[in-house]
User: Which sequence fits this backbone?
């Protein structure tokens, strides 16, 4: 329940900006930094280019979705494993008094 | 038995190789873009970062030798950093950024271990997603994988010692570590690009409004998410937390 409330706050924190900036672009912060650099040092030219870029926004979001899915998969696996182990340990503890009752 | 173990290790390695390959996203967030640091600064930050990586590798090796069962916890810290660094979240400034996710691992394993994890995330992001860059990797790794975790770790220790509850200490550690990463990025850009009018401080003010200010709500989100994971860990894996000496003495 506590976790649920925390999660709700996280969701609210990310939805709130969308509500107060209905017309904003929500571009990347590093794109803005790039602009700022060209203002401060107009003569500066990047001296190295990225070796490979995702060919399109779709490909990029594919990679993005895969990353989130795989990462979340591992976290889910981990929680499941811990929960199972925990339960097993709990049952082992319980068995002894039961046996004594009979 | 040994064969099973080797198979398991191969599986884990393959899983993470796969995971690392798909670290996506590009034009948002903190990282300094490819080629956007003058070569002398690029080299300088590489020089600072490399020793931290060696220290990090040694610390991971030592921890895993003592307690091989920590491997899966280290995996969890890595997975958490990958998921969080993929979440592009809108912020109050009307632009987007993403959390770092390294605070969890820093609290669990100490600051040096996360330098390796953070570096790997950034390396593949720059190679496959044109996010950040190879030339700026030294600088980006220094802010996200070295400075961020160190701040998280110190804040966690300080807050626990000051008597804050476990959850509050974790929250503060993750939030301030995240924020500190972006302050460091702004600083790195400011010393490389001092403005003609106001010098380094004027540049720092500009870059930090872009990076650090955008980051505030995201840092809070990261703090809350880290507390959620920690709650799960304290519920189901209290013993590992005790072994890692994470919990404050009295425990919870």
Assistant:
């Amino acid at each position: 329940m506590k976790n649920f409330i925390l999660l709700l706050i996280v969701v609210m924190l990310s939805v709130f900006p969308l509500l107060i900036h209905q017309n904003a672009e929500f571009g990347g912060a590093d794109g803005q930094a790039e602009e700022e650099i060209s203002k401060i040092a107009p003569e500066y030219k990047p001296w190295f280019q990225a070796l490979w870029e995702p060919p399109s926004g779709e490909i990029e979001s594919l990679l993005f979705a895969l990353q989130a899915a795989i990462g979340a998969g591992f976290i889910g696996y981990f929680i499941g494993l811990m929960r199972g182990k925990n339960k097993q340990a709990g049952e082992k503890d319980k068995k002894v008094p039961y046996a004594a009752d009979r | 038995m040994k064969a099973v173990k080797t198979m398991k290790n191969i599986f884990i390695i393959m899983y993470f190789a796969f995971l690392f390959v798909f670290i996506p996203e590009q034009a948002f967030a903190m990282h300094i873009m490819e080629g956007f640091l003058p070569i002398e600064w690029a080299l300088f930050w590489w020089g600072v970062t490399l020793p931290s990586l060696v220290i990090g590798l040694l610390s991971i090796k030592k921890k895993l030798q003592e307690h091989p069962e920590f491997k899966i916890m280290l995996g969890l810290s890595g997975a958490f950093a990958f998921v969080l660094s993929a979440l592009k979240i809108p912020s109050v400034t009307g632009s987007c950024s993403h959390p770092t996710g390294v605070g969890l691992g820093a609290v669990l394993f100490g600051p040096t271990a996360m330098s390796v994890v953070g570096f790997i995330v950034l390396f593949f992001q720059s190679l496959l997603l044109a996010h950040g860059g190879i030339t700026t990797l030294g600088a980006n790794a220094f802010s996200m994988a070295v400075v961020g975790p160190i701040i998280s770790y110190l804040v966690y220790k300080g807050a626990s010692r000051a008597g804050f509850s476990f959850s509050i200490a974790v929250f503060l550690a993750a939030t301030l570590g995240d924020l500190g990463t972006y302050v460091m990025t702004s600083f790195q850009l400011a010393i490389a690009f001092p403005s003609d009018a106001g010098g380094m401080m004027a540049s720092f003010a500009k870059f930090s409004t872009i990076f650090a200010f955008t980051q505030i709500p995201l840092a809070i989100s990261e703090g809350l998410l880290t507390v959620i994971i920690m709650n799960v860990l304290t519920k189901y894996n209290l013993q590992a937390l005790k072994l890692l000496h994470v919990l404050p003495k009295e425990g919870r």
Q: What stands out?
A: Confidence is low (pLDDT under 50) at residues 20-29 of chain B.
